[in-house]
Amino acid sequence: MQILHAAVLYFLLVFGAGFVLGVGRVLLVVPLLGERAAELIEMPLMLAVIVATARWVVHHKLDGRKSSALSVGFMAMSFVLLADLTVGIWLRGMSPVEVFLNRDPVSGTAYYAALLLFAVMPTILTRLRHGESLRCTPLEQRVMRSGRERGRSRHLSGIAKKSPVLTVFD
């Protein structure tokens, strides 16, 4: 239930900010610059909202497990897609296929990339919060932590003593 609550909250906060920014985009920026430029101008603002909201949700609503963060992100993304579908069909009179495929090639691609980032952002922030690198495997992280704890030179000399390959070339 905690995961569902966090996912709904994450969705509502980002969707609400997107709604407010979208109204401003349609009323102010689209008439001046066109739809593609307006959507691309809005994108960095939405990314900032996504990061800030995900950070808040991870800090205040999640238990710190990566699996729950990933669940929250993908559940929230499914709510966004459902909201897109609902708005497209009921308010814009589009078919379900048109809702998802009738987008500008440039800004539509940026939108779906941002949507994927929206889904994984809670997981990224959870990993960063626990001091995990986004590039290292768990084994590499343990080796790096043990090296920091014991000191780099002693750690490397311990590996050299245990490794027959390294001792042959010394």
Describe this structure as you would to a colleague:
The protein has 170 residues and is mainly alpha-helical. The protein folds into two domains: 2-135, no CATH class; 137-170, no CATH class. It is built from eight helices and no strands. Mean pLDDT is 85; it is low at 152-170.
SSE layout and pairings?
Elements: H1 2-33, H2 35-61, H3 66-91, H4 96-101, H5 105-129, H6 138-150, H7 152-162, H8 164-168
Q: What is the helix fraction of residues, given as a range? A: over 70%
User: Low-confidence stretches at least 5 residues in length (pLDDT < 50)?
Assistant: 152-170
Q: Could you tell me the number of beta strands?
A: 0
Number of helices in the DSSP assignment: 8
Q: Supply Rg.
A: 23 Å
Distance, first to last CA = 58 Å
Main beta-sheet annotation: none
How many domain modules?
Answer: 2
Mean pLDDT: 85
Structural class: mainly alpha
Written as H for each helix and E for each strand, in order along the chain, the element string is: HHHHHHHH
Which features does this protein show?
2 domains, disordered C terminus, 170 residues, mainly alpha
In short:
This protein has helices at 2-33, 35-61, 66-91, 96-101, 105-129, 138-150, 152-162, 164-168. It is mainly alpha-helical and 170 residues long.
